[in-house]
From TrEMBL:
The keyword Transferase does not apply. The keyword Ribosomal protein applies. Gene3D superfamilies: Ribosomal protein L10e/L16. Coiled coil: none annotated. One of its GO terms (cellular component) is mitochondrial large ribosomal subunit. It comes from the Eukaryota. Keywords: Ribonucleoprotein, Ribosomal protein. GO terms for molecular function: rRNA binding; structural constituent of ribosome. This is Large ribosomal subunit protein uL16m.
Length: 228
């Protein structure tokens, strides 16, 4: 918990200096509602997907950085977001941000993956069940939402940390400074490393000590064993 003088300082926070150069998006500054179901063309019918667990397996390799280089929420493991989770994020953040000096943008699409479910007590059989709802699959290290503008990390943390704790998977509040520090630390470890078995990608590729018998083919593709 922050000290009283720090909390009192937040109430009278005034941006100046480097925060004047913050770039705002051209569209609305608050989060817009996401559609509950995907939009289909005329006469098109949504197919029933298999489970496709690879949609949430492994690390995110594309949307794993902050576009606006300020603050956001990052997932720490794979999971699925329902429309209720997305509405909770939108309502909470729109209520807390000051539109005159802040903005928030989505980094995930609306629900698009169909999930089937049978009614309670229904007899098994009869083919695949009907589509019950849609979800948005998320991989580890995916940026879910960004917040920026004229605010410091204390104010951004107070807005985003509570939202990250309510998600159905582990997530955290991140800033551009935190991500840069982690990248520099990882580069330093690689440069100063004297362990021939680190990073584990080379060890898994050459099957040292029969290491492939303890991993899945996915770990061999990723070159690390940090993800499920």
């Amino acid at each position: 918990m922050l000290l009283f003088r720090e909390r009192h300082h937040e109430k009278k926070y005034a941006y100046k200096g480097e925060l004047v150069s913050a770039e705002f998006p051209p569209e609305r500054r608050k989060l817009h509602p996401l559609l509950r179901t995907p939009v289909l063309a005329g006469g098109e019918r949504m197919y029933k997907y298999p489970r496709r667990h690879y949609d949430i397996r492994g690390p995110e390799t594309v949307n794993n950085f902050l576009k606006h280089s300020q603050f956001g929420i990052q997932s720490l493991e794979g999971g699925e977001l329902k429309i209720g989770h997305l509405d909770m994020i939108r309502q909470t953040i729109n209520r807390k941000i000051d539109e005159n000096r802040m903005f928030a943008v989505w980094r995930v699409p609306g629900p698009w993956k169909p999930k089937t479910q049978r009614s309670l007590g229904k007899r098994m059989g009869g083919g695949k069940a009907d589509i019950h709802h849609y979800v948005t699959p998320v991989r580890a290290n995916r940026i879910i939402i960004e917040v920026g503008g004229h605010l410091d990390w204390r104010e951004a943390s107070r807005i985003l940390t509570g939202v990250a704790d309510l998600l159905p998977f582990s997530a955290r509040f991140v800033s551009q400074e935190l991500l840069d520090t982690e990248n520099r630390l990882e580069s330093y470890i690689l440069a100063q490393n004297v362990n021939p078995f680190y990073p584990p990608g080379k060890t898994l590729l050459k099957n040292y000590a029969g290491s492939r018998s303890f991993i899945s083919p996915w770990h061999l593709e990723w070159g690390e064993t940090d993800y499920k």
